[in-house]
Amino acid sequence: MTAAAQPKCEVKDLSLAPQGKERIEWAEREMPVLRQIRERFAKEKPFEGIRLVACCHVTTETGNLARALKAGGADAMLIASNPLSTQDDNAASLVVDYGIPVFAIKGEDNETYHRHVQLALDHKPNIIIDDGSDVTATLIKERQHQMGDIIGTTEETTTGIVRLRAMFNDGVLSFPAMNVNDAETKHFFDNRYGTGQSTLDGIIRATNILLAGKTVVVVGYGWCGKGCALRAKGMGADVVVTEVNAVRALEAKMDGFRVMPMNQAASIGDVFITVTGNKHVIDAHHFDAMKDGAIVCNSGHFDLELNLDYVKEKATSKRVVRQFAEEYHMPSGKSVIVLGEGRLINLAAAEGHPSAVMDMSFANQALACEHLVKNKGKLQPGVYNIPEDIDQEIARLKLNALGIEMDTLTQDQIDYLNSWTVGT
Ligand code: ADE
Hints:
Bound molecules: adenine
Largest sheet: 8 strands, mixed
CATH superfamily of the largest domain: Adenosylhomocysteinase-like
Strand order of the largest sheet: 9-8-7-10-11-14-13-12
Shape: globular
Structural class: alpha/beta
Number of strands: 15
Number of helices: 17
């Protein structure tokens, strides 16, 4: 490919582009579904004349999503959905090699993050792809006059869906929002296997600890928690699960894990992983009860799952022990190790979910955007599930790419499933 005209950007260093390009192409090898969608978009141009903003983790997988949207004719721009998740070489290549405006720098401060959200809204988007709903929430709070431009939004993650539903219930959501998170080809794979693998990857890269024999406390047994527990068990850890939902607690028990309240788990854990979407699930008294040298991290969307304000306020001193690992010395004489500043450890210290699962998540994103454009003006404000046929099509394309065939129902079986007359 020839270098594209260079758009506006705020990235760390454009000279990182060659390495970023290689990594984007490497990721693409594992993203056959998104590649096929990009090739179709390039012919059909579904987004001609559409201004689009994507607020996502600026990874090589997101790079491939941005390529697909641009190929479809979108005037697309990309900002980071988290200050620590940007891959700087990838951001540089998207600007230099693919002509996509990117505003994202790994380690950017909160002021820069919010300024980029404002810049994204200055782009006057018709479609917003959000991961956590920050752009949509800012639009509603601060840019009411732009609401009329919006065809719709798509949302990547559980936390964003919770916020969108709250916006709808408050009567402030005046456009359709597509719920990518709850597509089966998204959360069964991305939330479970993606979070499971990449969270352990982040912990290992940040600490290089052996997980075998460690007590790993997984806080929350949703799809992400299930993945973390499953993979930690696979590495030989003694996994403890904490939950507030009785059905999930029971599920964790029957999946073979010890289940107990955080008040008990706090004193026995060697490693803690929060994946709840809620605030302060590890609170002051839990930190006080921990063993000396306990390792604590978060893989939920926002960094408020851990009450780090308490740790920072109480600590007598702090030191960086490794990249992405900070040791806080507490007045009790014990220390606690916090990974990745409490931000998504899988993206802060590792590279996020592997491309093979993001292939399906971002195929959902691309097709959800197309669905919004095709149904422009027809959808009432609200939070919409991804249509079943899109989910099935993505799974079919993925199976096909993996060379896996499956069975189909016979006519006799279809008739049986539609009848009630045959019984004992
Ligand atoms: N969320 C989790 N992993 C991701 C990745 N690799 N790219 C974009 N968003 C992600």
